[in-house]
Design a protein that fits this description.
Elements (H helix, E strand, L loop, with lengths): L21 H12 L6 E5 L6 H12 L17 H7 L6 E4 L2 E2 L4 E2 L5 H9 L12 E6 L6 H12 L5 E7 L7 H4 L3 E4 L5 H7 L5 H7 L3 H7 L4 H12 L7 H10 L3 H22 L11 H9 L4 H18 L5 H15 L4
Helix pairs in contact: 4-5, 8-9, 10-11, 10-12, 11-15, 12-13, 12-14, 12-15, 14-15
């Protein structure tokens, strides 16, 4: 269902490659070498940075997969444990998400039933000789009070050989009672230079939107992000001309929900970068010479006015969830930004 993976990419349990965050991988590897493994971990970082990929990477090795020599936690790809984890058939590994397999629906949160089903695994005999089992909750941001309380009982009295990994986009979203019983591991976005090393192909609009998250960059690869941004820049960067043909092209493209999200994100990013350029700050250029162009547009515009436009965009984005026409929303968003650039 994609609730614990990025649409269009292999599920993290199938993904053997891991890029960036070598320090986080090494910390887990070192913990694996110790006599007593900590029973609970929180992996934090933005979506697409590789939290779930690292969780399954660790699980393979902890549950007995043969190592390979690519990096500290890499596994031999033809190991039976690797195959069982990839197809979800290894009984010593369970995952709790918002997906309800019985009803085949995605719930608003990770239910208490999902947590109890997860922790029930610890009452069963493990299939490996070490008595090890791994539970992954993806993500703990979606955990509510009842589920958190059910999890807390297991964290307070961890079964022998159990490791519980909580995946979180924000450490602040986790209850202190849970956080205090876990070891936190923060995954950081990569620099653009690192991203360019690992991406088979890229453009600067894609790099800007990915913001250092490799998975996010790959997910964007199937879209013409650069072409979308060229239309946005062709409309806004030429203010006060703003050719309407480009605006209508964007509105037409917004019929595709994924492209609509990309357009909206790029528009929000445009205001953010334009504001920074106008106050003399450094920005990531998507088009060559863009810093000067954006500074020309915003250097005399009060920063508060631009921030208000950014906030209006977020409000408009919320209205789209209430069935506002997506094409009309894009035209309205462009109108909001255009008005914020008027020096009066």
């Amino acid at each position: 269902m994609g609730v614990d993976s990025i649409d269009g990419l292999p599920h993290p349990r199938e993904t053997l490659q891991f890029f960036g965050n070598e320090a986080a991988e090494l910390a887990l590897y070192n913990a694996l070498q110790t006599a007593k493994m900590h029973h609970a971990w929180i992996f934090t970082g933005p979506k697409g940075v590789g939290k779930a990929t690292l969780a399954y990477r660790f699980a393979r090795r902890y549950l007995g997969a043969k190592p390979s020599d690519e990096s500290p936690l890499s596994s031999y790809e033809h190991d039976p444990i690797v195959a069982k984890i990839a197809n979800g058939s290894l009984g010593d590994l369970k995952t709790a998400t918002r997906y309800d397999p019985d009803a085949e629906t995605v719930k608003r949160d990770v239910s208490v039933a999902a947590i109890r089903q997860l922790t029930n695994m610890f009452s069963l005999k493990s299939s490996n000789e070490f008595g090890r089992r791994v539970a992954i909750i993806d993500s703990v941001d979606d955990l509510r009070d009842a589920g958190a309380n059910a999890l807390l009982k297991t964290l307070e009295e961890p079964p022998k050989g159990a490791v519980i990994i909580l995946i979180a986009n924000s450490l602040g979203s986790i209850l202190p009672t849970i956080r205090s019983r876990c070891r936190a591991l923060s995954l950081k976005p990569m620099s653009d230079m690192e991203m360019k090393q690992y991406l088979p192909k890229y453009n600067y609009a894609q790099l800007t939107m990915a913001n250092g998250c490799y998975g996010r960059a790959l997910a964007l690869d199937k879209y013409d992000v650069d072409g979308v941004y060229n239309l946005i820049a062709g409309y806004l960067n030429t203010f006060p001309n703003c050719p309407m043909g480009k605006a209508f092209s964007l509105a037409d493209m917004a019929r595709d929900e994924d492209v609509f999200e990309i357009i909206f994100e790029l528009l929000s990013n445009w205001i953010y970068r334009a504001t920074n350029a106008g106050t003399g700050g450094d920005i990531k250029e998507i088009e060559v010479g863009e810093s000067a162009a954006l500074a020309r547009l915003t250097s005399r515009i009060p920063k508060e006015k631009l921030f208000k436009a950014w906030q209006s965009l977020q409000d408009l984005r919320g209205a789209v969830a209430n069935n506002l026409d997506k094409g009309a929303a894009i035209l309205e968003a462009l109108k909001i930004i255009k008005k914020s650039l008027e020096n009066k």
